[in-house]
Structure formats: C-alpha cells, structure tokens
Amino acid sequence: MGASHSATARSRDKQPEQEGLLLPTTATSPSPRAIERLNAEPPIHNDMTAITLPPTPTASVDQEKPFHVLVLMSDTGGGHRASAQALDAAFDSLYPSRSQITIVDFWTSVAGFPFHNFPRQYSYIAKRPWMWKLVFLWAAFPPTRWLTEAAFSLFCHSKVRRYFEAHDPDLIISVHPLVNTLSLSVLAAIRRAKRAPPPPFVTVVTDLGGAHPTWFDPRADMVYVPSEPLHQAALEAAVPEDRIRLFGLPIRPAFWQETRSPAQLRVELGMALNIPAVLLVGGGDGVGGLQAIALAIAARIAENCGSSAAQLIVVCGKNKSLLNRLQATSWPIPVILKGFVKNMSEWMSASDILCSKAGPGTIAEAWIRGLPIILTGYLPGQEEGNVRLVTESGSGEFHSQPDDIAECAAKWISDPELRAAIAERAKSLGRPRSCLEIASDIWDIAEQRQRERDAFRLRMLTSHSQHVPNGYIAMARFYVTNGLRSMQRGFRSVFRYSAVETVGPRE
C-alpha cells in the first residue's frame, strides 16, 4: 500500500500491539477444527503463567502466497484500533508468515470526504455526553439511520468499491459498527457485477454489555460477540444463530503473554511493594474529571486508612494540562503520575483496584487481571450496558461523584477480604484466550471460502462460453433490479421489518 493514506500494512516478521470476556451462553460453539486445535494447547490461567501457542496447523491456502486479511476500523476511540492490533497479533502467533494483515482506518483512508474527519469529531463529541447520546440515537432510530446509510452509500460507495477491487483481500474483518452496511453492500454489488463469490466478511463486535444496532448485519458471514446480551441483540437484528459466535473481546497480547509477577512489575515501575495500589485512568484522552477524583481518593484514604495505607497511580493519557496540574499538587499519600502509557497491562498487573470509565476493553482487561472495578462514568447508550454487567456480576461498583468513588476505594483498601472476594469474581469473568479463539475460528471460515472461490474460478476457466445478453437489456435489468433492492432495504430499515427466513447465506 502506498504512503498516501494511513492504512497500516504490516509484514509478518514484525510484532504488533490491544482488548476479552464473558458469561456462559447457548450461542453457537466454535467450529470443530477450531475446538480441536485450541484443545490441543496447554490450559491458560488468569495468573502470570505464560501462554504456550499451538503448533501452526496445516492450511489449504496457497503456501506460496500469504493470505491477505483486511481489517476495517476507525480511530473513533482507542478500542477499535486496539482490537484490530490484537487480532493482528493473534494471526501472527497462530499463522506466522502465512497471513498478511492490512489495518486501515475506513473513514479516513477508504471512504474519505466528507466523512474523513470522523475520528476528530468523535473526540469532541465524546467529551459532551448529551451530544454523544443525540448522535447515538440518530444513528439507531430506523428512519434517520436509513438516511445516514444512504448518505454513506451516495458519497462513498464507488470509493470503497475501488479500494476493495484494487486490494482484492482474501478476508475482510470489521471491528467498527459504521463500516458494516456500506461494506457489505459494496461486496454484494461486486458479486452481482462479476458473478463470483466475494471474500468472507466477518464482524468482531468490540462493545461489551450493549451495542449499537449498526454492528449487526445479517449478510455477514459471521458475527463475533463478547457477551450474552450482545448475542441476544444479534438475534433480534435477524442475524442467523448459526452465524453468531461468543468468545470475548480481542485483547492485546500483553494480557495473554505476561510472565512477570506483580512484585517484579512493581519494582520495574517504581511502585511501593507492600501497600495496595489504586489505578485511576481516564482513557487515552484523560477525560472524566480525573483531577477531582484523584484528590478525593487520596484525601479519603489518608483520612480513613492512614497516609501510608495505599498508593495511587493516575494515568492522565494525552491530557498534558491535567498532568501538569496534578504534578503541582501536594499529596497526602504516595502518588505516581503518568501521561500516556503503552504498558497498561503492567500497571494493571501491579495494582489492586481499578477506577475507570466504563470502556469495554478496559473492563475486559481488568477482568483478566482480576481487578475490582470502580466505574466512574460511561457514554450514554453505548456503555450503559457495561455498567450493568460489572455491577450485576459483583466484579465492581458504579459511582459518579468523586466523594462516593473515594469512599468505595477507601472501603476496599481497609477490607482486604472484601477486596479479594471481588477480585476473584472479576477473575472468573476474564477471557484471556478470546483473541486466539476468534482468530482460529475466522481462519477456518476463510479457508473454506477460499476453497469455494478457487473452485468457482476453475469452473469458469473450464466452462464453455456463456451467452452474453444485449447490452441495453443487461443495463435495464441492472437498474430495475437494483432499484427494487433499494426499495426493499429502505422498507425494512424504516419499518424495522426483517424476517430471518428471508436472509440467506452470501454466495
């Protein structure tokens, strides 16, 4: 890929970098090949034990040509890119030198104008919850959702089609809700034009307890969900049950490769060794009223437990002004202040309590590390379900006011038995193998589709010439057929009509 856009095409001799999870379900189980391969691995535990990766399985794809995987994401929040990089790492671990991964920001580098500023607009809106909720509801309400998707198609269909045809991927993975409808419509148009089976398209949902309806499109070959609530949401969106898999969130490799003990990590990170640690984070942008929360936690612990009873680590992200203000503050307990960090796995491993907004990846990572969670805020609509999952599972509490957050932290610091019980419940929800399970299952789907595509090409090469209809007749048939299909999709979107029996597998 050229340097003219921000797509990240990585050769497999490099090591990538982020998000797992959840409750028992009756969702469709992994494929037999995936089960056999993953059961052959030694068991993985939620402690610091290293994961031994399985031997590379035999593939049916061409060994001379790397399998090209296109991952569609957008930098609207750090979780989508982190999930893409986690899948990249999993493919590299399971299938070294046999897969070529291209991670591309769909709206910036593929769809382009007038939607190329989505990442910057997201950062602005996410800091204003009322505005975020308005945008969330706009894209979820069927009539306005249909208008939005019509605008996406009007401005971007041809650009997305040119990109797909130019790169000709063997597999497409979506880790962003707003790319699914447009991408699948483009693939359907390519299939009709070329009369050939397209590459498989799978969706990996990176939300946790609740998800926007645009995540779920019945035309996808497979939809990977991290929790039972999202399994139900996929069924309600008319996704066939045999095309839903429940594994967990794709999590950064550091969370399934760490071998150092918490004591070793504390020494390396410069933390006190023998007192509990409270880790306070506000995402990559350092939002969520971190200053007031940090001051309240430090004061309450010092008052209730003593000035040497605990330590506080505050990760300010890219918020440099916040970091400067906190550095100028006098603290009553030991405090470590950090800006943007790339080793969150180490900080979580070395800590005893996590305070964070209800981001899905952060919750999943805390579960893997067995951290009691104090949720301090959430994005309306998108993250409300995450709060329910944490509180109902007993792995944490939700408090929005700094004084209440501080009281909860001080209570857990002063009661080690209570803290240990909550940590055990959190640990039981961790899914450190989720990323490997997803990658293995996707690979099986891709291999099967590749065999079908190869067989189709062979039939086309060996079959007799087909009758080509008159050009005017073909053109009229194309426009009439597509007009009827557009009317049908519009009817279903506006009136939320979707019958599972009308949704067949993609060719």
Automatic annotation (TrEMBL):
Keywords, in A-Z order:
Glycosyltransferase, Transferase
Boundaries of every Glycosyl transferase family 28 C-terminal domain copy: 278-396
What is one GO cellular-component annotation here?
chloroplast membrane
What EC number is given for this enzyme? 2.4.1.46
Q: Which SUPFAM superfamilies match?
A: UDP-Glycosyltransferase/glycogen phosphorylase
- Keyword Transferase in the entry? The reply is yes
* Annotated Gene3D superfamilies: Glycogen Phosphorylase B
Q: Name one Pfam family in it.
A: Glyco_tran_28_C
UniProt GO BP: glycolipid biosynthetic process
For this UniProt entry, the molecular function terms from Gene Ontology, in alphabetical order, are: 1,2-diacylglycerol 3-beta-galactosyltransferase activity
UniProt domain Diacylglycerol glucosyltransferase N-terminal: residue ranges: 80-251
**Residues annotated as region Disordered?**
1-33
Report the superkingdom from the record.
Eukaryota
Q: Where in the cell is it found?
A: Plastid, Chloroplast membrane
The similarity comment for this entry is: Belongs to the glycosyltransferase 28 family.
Q: What is this protein called?
A: monogalactosyldiacylglycerol synthase
Q: Which organism is it from?
A: Gracilariopsis chorda
